[in-house]
Design a protein that fits this description.
78 residues; alpha+beta; 12% helix; globular
Length: 78
């Protein structure tokens, strides 16, 4: 991994923080994407970016996630 986040440990998202965060729209838990670049709200079908280790939990920053992409999340696979 040669990204800037790898070069600067301060820019790495702390997974323990995930336990405290919820979707700002649905108040449901969030899932870390496989590449660790987004937090995903399955209930809202939104993905919130993580920039320099900081999740941007603003609806303005979120992108829509297609249902098929949600099925690809590791914790939702059968």
């Amino acid at each position: 991994m040669t990204t800037q986040a790898a070069a600067n440990p301060r820019h790495v998202f702390d997974v323990k923080t995930l336990e405290m965060l919820v979707c700002p729209l649905t108040k449901t838990r969030l899932t870390l994407s496989a590449d660790r670049s987004e937090l995903i709200s399955v209930a809202a079908r939104l993905a919130f970016p993580i920039v320099k280790g900081v999740p941007l939990l603003s609806l303005d920053e979120a992108r829509n996630v297609e249902p098929e992409a949600l099925r690809q999340l590791p914790e939702l696979k059968d």
